[in-house]
From TrEMBL:
Quaternary structure annotation from Swiss-Prot or TrEMBL: Interacts (mainly via CDR1-like domain) with dimeric IgA. Interacts (mainly via CDR2-like domain) with pentameric IgM.
Keyword terms: Cell membrane, Disulfide bond, Glycoprotein, Immunoglobulin domain, Membrane, Secreted, Signal, Transmembrane, Transmembrane helix
InterPro entries in alphabetical order: CD300_family_receptors, Ig-like_dom, Ig-like_dom_sf, Ig-like_fold, Ig_sub, Ig_V-set
Species per Swiss-Prot/TrEMBL record: Catagonus wagneri (Chacoan peccary)
Protein name (database record): Polymeric immunoglobulin receptor
Length: 762
């Protein structure tokens, strides 16, 4: 029975010719007195939009007589009841014809250009008898799969008698149902009698899920004798006239299915009619999907049993007749409501070709180019991921207005390219879970929607850079990205990622990279420098390549910004014997020495002591014990003793610091006769022979002594004498320091003695 149902449908839906780019309905049916609207499609091009559109009727000899055209012509037969409207923005024109009669049945053409040789499509128009009373027969019409109610009147004397309905088969009338409970097997579970009461003088015969075989003449009867009341009903089952859908190759189409509230809770399906193969399910609400439509079909449920099915990435083989329906099994079955479409795929498309598959490696990236209508420059763009487990649900991941799914933070960006007809989506830091199907969408023309499959393959990312970096507030940061040879001619860039995209940052090239073994000097390093890092600099940074408006591979690094804790630079234990850095010793020693020499307060007490002494340097008259003069003199003597001692100690400490600093610079001071000079270690053949072990790791060819704080070579007039004298062992640094300290103590003792007792011999 099901095969017979599909055979009938295939007979109703003839094969569509795809030779002409003009497309319209092959068969249109209506009833007397009503109207009809016939839509014809044409390729969306500038020439077609401005070409003449026409509707003509084919005569007996094949000649097509124009009845109405877009130039304003209208025939006498159509005057006052027909018009033709062009919709160039949609690539369609529509003929509206009213007050139809049986004489309007026939063959027609809708086309572009001249009627005799223009592009056209054949249409068959059939006008049926209108439902209602025709003599003693009442006419009923019903759509395939729907419900019809036939009313059967009777007289009051037959109100208590048996009610029945039979169907005429030739000269016989086959019993279908009666009030005793009998139902014919072919109508079981879908037909019943409804008796409202004896006062109504009418009973109803109801048939659910109308089938094509239900069409015919029915006889209603009340009573079973010669006085029985009889009435005739003519049931016409309307063919499922398909709705036309015109799609472009590589474009998208949408099927809007409305089956009625009575099947709101029943499983739904969409199937494609194939010659000799029945209707193959494309998708249903039970999770079934055809393999040919994987990744490019969406099922969207709506209210009151309605739903939509969206198909993208159209192919030539997608053209044909589609049925949507409802059945508990999710499969098409005879007797259940269906809705039909006829899909035409236009190969003369304006949608550009693009790859349906992109490949990326683990840790790498992909850039997907998404086309959109050039008329939609200001439309919102989206990117979503198709989920097979959710009946083709596609949750959005990124939008052009700044929304990014939090799971893709730092990994996903959408770039708009006004005037180019495409927008680009970049996804990096790829994982194996990213493999799948993704859709490109806009909030306007759905015909431009497209899909792409992402595959994860073996390999390594081409760009080399760290994954995470820690920066410190107030300090400089340098990020380097290594590019292989094949990206030599591409534009390289650094940018900072945010929800609205990735903002370009100034970067600089640093020459060839050594990160690629099999690469030559064309490999490059591109660096990003942040002079003074702040907390706002924290986040994701991308480096990548670009060629014109086309984005290539990218890499991502996360920069974490932290504040240093005081003393965190030398967090280890302090060594009291460790010398400070060389570069800090000599400047600090000079600073202290200058402070000592330039501070006049250090010399005021010394002048006061000299004022107490006599002209000859002796002491003045002694003061009486206990007198103020004596006490003042004692205080002055004490001050005059301690101040010079402190001064000498400070000068001695500075002197030792300076000597150690100069010694750490690997400069040794030795005596040659009566001169003291600086001799570079490079003047000796081997510094180890003379006890110079400081900085032994440095190259002797690059070390020179400092003379007077300037880098220059020391010269002397005693070179000839020095050459004749035998070499003497040089004191070690420790011996020289001990000697200097001994000399300092003797000098300090002399100064103290002179301050207390006057001049004496040392």
């Amino acid at each position: 029975m099901t095969r017979f149902f599909f055979a009938c449908l295939l007979a109703v839906f003839p094969v569509v010719s795809t030779k002409s780019p003009i497309f319209g309905p092959e068969e249109v049916s209506s009833v007397e007195g009503s109207s009809v609207s016939i839509k014809c499609y044409y390729p969306d091009s500038s020439v077609n939009r401005h070409s003449r559109k026409y509707w003509c009727r084919i005569g007996a000899k094949g000649r097509c007589t124009t009845l109405i055209s877009s130039e304003g012509f209208i025939s006498k037969d159509y005057a006052g009841r027909a018009n033709l409207t062009n919709f160039p923005e949609n690539g369609t024109f529509v003929m509206d014809i009213g007050h139809l009669t049986r004489n309007d049945s026939g063959r027609y053409k809708c086309g572009l250009g001249i009627s005799s040789r223009g592009l056209s499509f054949d249409v068959s128009l059939e006008i049926n008898r209108a439902p209602g009373q025709s003599g003693d027969v009442h006419v009923y019409t019903a759509d395939l799969g729907r419900t019809v109610t036939i009313n059967c009147p009777f007289k009051s004397q037959n109100s208590q008698k048996k009610k029945s309905v039979c169907k005429k088969i030739g000269q016989d009338c086959l019993l279908i149902i009666d009030s005793s409970g009998y139902v014919s097997p072919s109508y079981r579970n879908r037909a019943h009698l409804s008796i409202q009461g004896t006062s109504q003088l009418v009973f109803s015969f109801v048939i659910n899920r109308i089938q094509l075989t239900d069409a015919g003449i029915y006889v209603c009867q009340a009573g079973d004798d010669a006085s029985a009341d009889k009435s005739n009903a003519d049931l016409q089952v309307l063919k499922p006239e398909p709705e036309l859908i015109y799609g472009d190759l590589r474009g998208s189409v949408t099927f809007d299915c409305a089956l009625g509230q009575e099947v709101a809770d029943v499983a739904k399906f969409l199937c494609l009619l194939k010659n000799g193969e029945g209707c193959n399910v494309v998708i249903n609400t039970l999770g079934k999907k055809a393999r040919d439509f994987e990744g490019r079909i969406l099922f969207t449920p709506k209210e009151k049993g309605q739903f939509s099915v969206h198909i993208t990435g159209l192919r030539k083989e997608d053209a044909g007749y589609y049925l949507c329906g409802a059945h508990p099994s999710g499969e098409p079955q005879q007797g259940w409501p269906v809705q039909a479409w006829q899909l035409f795929v236009n190969e003369d498309t304006v949608i550009p070709p693009r790859s349906s598959v992109v490949r990326g490696v683990l840790g790498g990236s992909v850039a997907v180019s998404c086309p959109y209508s050039p008329k939609e420059t200001n439309s919102l763009k989206y990117w979503c991921r198709w989920e097979e487990s959710q009946n083709g649900r596609c949750p959005q991941l990124v939008e052009s207005d700044g929304l990014v799914d939090e799971r893709y933070e730092g990994r996903l960006a959408l770039y708009e390219e006004p005037g180019n007809g495409t927008f680009t989506v970049i996804l990096n830091q790829l994982t194996s879970r990213d493999a799948g199907f993704y859709w490109c969408l806009t909030n306007k023309d759905p015909r431009w929607r497209s899909t792409v499959e992402l595959k994860i393959v073996e390999g390594e990312p081409n760009l080399k850079l760290p994954k995470t970096v820690t920066a410190w507030v107030g300090e400089a940061l340098k990020l380097s990205c290594h590019f292989p040879c094949k990206f030599y001619a591409y534009k390289k860039y650094w940018c900072k990622w945010s929800n609205t995209g990735c903002r370009d940052l100034p970067s600089q090239q640093e020459g060839p990279s050594q990160a690629f073994v099999n690469c030559d000097q064309k490999s490059q390093i591109i660096s990003l420098n942040l002079n003074s890092v702040s907390k706002q600099d924290e986040g994701w940074y991308w480096c990548g390549v670009k060629e014109g408006l086309h984005y290539g591979e990218t890499g991502a690094v996360y920069v974490a910004v932290e504040e240093r804790v005081t003393g965190s630079r030398n967090a280890g234990p302090v060594n009291a014997d460790a010398a400070p850095p060389e570069e800090a010793i000599e400047p600090r020693a000079r600073q202290v020495e200058n402070e000592v020499l330039l501070d006049p307060s250090l010399f005021s007490e010394e002048r006061a002591v000299q004022g107490v002494e006599g002209p000859a340097g002796g002491s003045g008259a002694p003061a009486a014990p206990g007198s103020s003069a004596g006490q003042g003199g004692g205080s002055r003597v004490l001050v005059s003793t301690l101040v010079p001692l402190a001064l000498v100690l400070v000068v001695g400490a500075v002197t030792i610091g300076v000597l150690r600093a100069r010694h750490r610079k690997n400069v040794d001071r030795i005596s040659i006769r009566s001169y003291r000079t600086d001799i570079s270690m490079s003047d000796f053949e081997n510094s180890r022979d003379f006890g110079a072990y400081d900085n032994v790791g440095a190259s002797p060819d690059t070390q020179e002594t400092a003379l007077g704080g300037k880098d220059e070579f020391a010269t002397t007039t005693e070179n000839t004498v020095e050459a004749e004298e035998p070499k003497k062992a040089k004191r070690s640094s420790k011996e020289e320091a001990d000697k200097a300290f001994t000399a300092f103590l003797l000098q300090a003792n002399s100064i103290v003695a002179a301050a207390q007792d006057g001049p004496r011999e040392a």
